[in-house]
Amino acid sequence: MDNYAKELKLPVMRFELDAMVELATRQEWSYYRLIRELLEKEHENRTEKRKKQKIRRANFPELKYLEELDVKKLPKDAQVALNELETLEFIREGRNVVLYGNPGTGKTHLATALAIRACEEDMTVLFTTVPRLLTQIRECRSQKKLTQLERNFEKYDLVICDEFGYVSCDKEGGELLFNHLSLRAGKKSTIITTNLAFNRWNEIIKDKVLVAAMVDRLTHKAFIINMTGDSYRLKETKKSWLICKIRNNKLLL
Q1: Percent of the chain topping pLDDT 90
Q2: Do strands 158-164 and 189-194 pair parallel, antiparallel, or not at all (unpaired)?
Q3: How far apart are CA 174 and CA 57, in angstroms?
Q4: CB atoms within 10 A of CB 223
Q5: What is the greatest pairwise CA distance in the chain?
């Protein structure tokens, strides 16, 4: 029995069969009930395993969950949009989300938390930064593997492109990024996090025509959320500094 369960990759049958049979005997289950219970547990086990695999394959730098968000500390726009975003309908409808504002206001946390919720609902997700994506595009192009990268990129239910605006790119880089993101336009959902408002994107990509086309393509039917506010990290730094100062004063006394 153990060999069959191992070969068929049925861990519940392999490790819990005796306990389930004992329970079935005590509660006088029918054979049908026992088989159904075993199959249900196998299904639950595989579903949970698949969720964990999707989260691992998404390449999140950190795991952030919606339950961890302090909603009251989010910028107002995010507070208003959150109820609709967490339904994940924007992913099913292929709509983009652009989170823009100064660093430390929860853009990456919110994007990651929504993406993890998507993984838990059996969707495929990719997390990347814009600089990393550009590097990957260039490498694949030089290795003549760009077509495969594009096919894979197109298939994800949700892609997060983090940190747009932190590193500038030349005209070629801007064109590569535009072409790559355009593969998903109107079909699949992309979340962009950026520290720059749209009127400053030409600071990163010098071609104004290309910037206008990119903004138009990314923002069509998108959620545009202003994340400008007080930095969480700055607040924590100030809090730590204040605690340290109080402790030092007490020692001096």
Answers
A1: 74
A2: parallel
A3: 27
A4: 18
A5: 77
Residue 196 vs residues 139, 143, 201: alpha-carbon distances, Å: 27, 33, 7
For residue 231, the surrounding DSSP H or E stretch is none
Residue 221 structure tokens: 């039917």
User: Under a CB-based contact definition with an 8 Å cutoff, are residues 99 and 111 in contact?
Assistant: yes
For residue 238 the two structure tokens come to 């100030």
What's the Cα-to-Cα distance from 204 to each of 70, 131, 227, rounded to whole Å?
Answer: 31, 12, 19
Label residue 236 left, alpha or beta by phi (over 0 means left) and psi (-120 to 50 means alpha). Answer: alpha
CA–CA separation, 110 and 91 (whole Å) = 15
Select from 74, 85, 108, 110 the least CA-distant residue to 229.
Answer: 74
Q: Indicate the pTM of the whole model.
A: 0.83
Locate all alpha helices (DSSP H) within 73-230, ordered by sequence: 76-85, 89-92, 107-120, 130-142, 146-155, 171-182, 208-219
Q: pLDDT tens, 163-210?
A: 999 888 888 999 999 999 999 999 999 999 999 999 999 999 989 999
